[in-house]
Amino acid sequence: MPPCRRLSYLGLAKYRTSGSPRISTRFSHTAPNRQDQSDGALKGVKVLDLSRVLAAPYCTQILADYGAEVTKIEEVDKGDDTRHWKVDGEEQAWTDESLPFSLYYASVNRNKRSMCLDLKHDKGKEIFLQLAKEADIVIENFRPGKMEQLGLGYETLQKANPRLIYATVSGYGAGGPSAERSGYDMIAAAEAGLLHVTGERDGPPVRPGLGLVDMSTGLYIHGAILAALHARQRTGLGQRVDASLFETQIALLINVGLAWLNLEQESERWGCQHPSVVPYDAFKTKDLYIICGATNDRQFSKLMEILGSPSLAQDERFRTNALRVKNRDALFPMLRELFEKRTTNEWLDAFEGSALPYAPINNMSRVFSHPQTLARDMIATVPFEGSAGGTLNLIGPAVKFSLNKPSIRSRPPLLGENTDDILKGLGYTEQDILSLKETKIV
Fold first, then answer.
1. SUPFAM superfamilies, from UniProt (predicted)?
2. Which end of the chain is less congested by CB atoms within 10 angstroms, N or C?
3. CA-CA-CA-CA torsion sign (40, 225, 143, 53)
4. What is the distance between the alpha carbons of residues 27 and 381, in angstroms, rounded to a whole number?
5. CA-to-CA distance for 323 and 286, rounded, in angstroms?
């Protein structure tokens, strides 16, 4: 792809804050057909994905985007719970033949094959073991101990395939007093501190608008799996890697956590403000909102100059960041009054070239019509016969490679769509497959 033309932020902002343009697929990357072979970095790596909902499926989608062959094992006749999670009015988007299917499911399950398999049945376990012997990675997010109850735990699979990487994602980890508890994004966010620090100052806790703990756990376990694959190159042996929502969120506390561990300083909710950098906030303009800040004293002077109040930078209460942190309650009302004098686009004009941190707060329409979004291939349009419109728009891979490029090779699969092909690859005949279907094993 040729280098993208550099766009001024002013041009972007004006484009973004005027109206609500719709996605135009002529700007979108169109995914190749499934039969096109990927040359992704993980080409040849085989993944058995027993997971559902968000954290682990998000991980396996990343692996799939990087070229891995991911086989999603789903419950017979039901599938992943998220196949049934639809927003209001979504039913009309799908044909009857595609159901169960949803946008939520589609968001984290592209580039995968779907196989329905009853792991409680002896024959289902036998089929799974056949697949596991040829796999590089197995990932599951059952409660700890569930796979052992099925007779398919790590020790069993490791004996069948010593090179296997066995990845688990749970709510609280494989050990400890909370190990048996179910894992949910908001529960972990509450118990491990995220909700305590999220919300307006002196206001109630607020859930972030996305499943941040789930997705962060998926990112952590994806990195751990790749590290385990690298270790296998040296040792020839696989291993178990264990991630949890609770531990992920504790790890994400970063500086807030260290302030408690070292100073016993309790954290607070700051809204869009920053606990140790002032000013940094979302400011209401004449029409919308803008994020703006000053991360050092030089930037603060520049900000005050642009806002038309340079004398504030010389005020003894605000001359240094430490003083501004101490006197933020005196400073912010004055800043809010200044920002309300102009529209967002007028402020974006004023900030252009200033090197200050600033940006409009964009809704989804403006995000997905942003020239940078389009230039970086962050929208992919794939053919999908199960969609009323015949296509499905997906969010593109976040990371770009210079050689082994991530790709969207196939749309999210229908429930059990690839079961027959997978069984045939294991040597099962048409009659064998028919018998397995009649007994609901597949």
1. CoA-transferase family III (CaiB/BaiF)
2. N
3. negative
4. 10
5. 29
Q: Which two tokens stand for residue 166?
A: 């066995």
**Amino acid of residue 18:** S
Handedness of CA 73, 78, 82, 83 (dihedral sign): positive
Percent of the chain scoring above 90 in pLDDT:
85
Which domains are seen in the chain, by residue range?
A: 46-266+412-439 (3.40.50.10540), 289-360 (3.30.1540.10), 366-395 (no CATH)
Q: Residue 48 in contact with residue 73, Cβ under 8 Å?
A: yes
| DSSP three-state, residue 142 | coil
Residue 13 has pLDDT above 50, yes or no: no
Does the pTM surpass 0.90? The reply is no
Helix (H, G, I), strand (E, B) or coil at 113: strand
Cα angle for residues 269, 272, 278 (degrees, 5° grid) = 95
How far is the CA of 296 from the CAs of 254, 309, 328, 351, in angstroms?
A: 21, 17, 15, 16
The single residue listed with the structure tokens 């998000």 is 58
Q: Look up residue 94 and give its DSSP letter.
A: B
In the chain, what's the furthest Cα-to-Cα distance? 85
What values do phi and psi take at 184, rounded to 5? Answer: -135, 140
198-210 residue pLDDT tens: 999 889 999 999 9
Please tell me the distance from the alpha carbon of residue 52 to that of residue 210, in angstroms, as a whole number.
17
Alpha carbons 270 and 153: distance in angstroms, whole number? 44
User: Is-contact 334 312, C-beta < 8 A?
Assistant: yes
| Region of residue 206 (left: phi > 0; alpha: psi -120 to 50; beta: else) | beta
On average, the pLDDT of the chain sits at 90
Judged by DSSP in three states, 273 sits in coil
Residues 420/132, Cβ–Cβ less than 8 Å: no
Q: How far apart are CA 295 and CA 303, in angstroms?
A: 11
Q: What is the dihedral of CA 153, 154, 155, 156, to 10 degrees?
A: 50
What is the set of active-site residues?
A: 214
User: Encoding tokens for residue 410?
Assistant: 């196939």
Predicted pLDDT at 17: 52
DSSP labels, 379-409: EEEEE-TTBTTSEEEEEPPS---SSS-----
Q: What is the dihedral of CA 13, 18, 22, 26, to 10 degrees?
A: -50
Question: Alpha carbon of 125 to those of 24, 37, 152: distances in Å?
Answer: 46, 30, 8
The DSSP symbol for 39 reads -
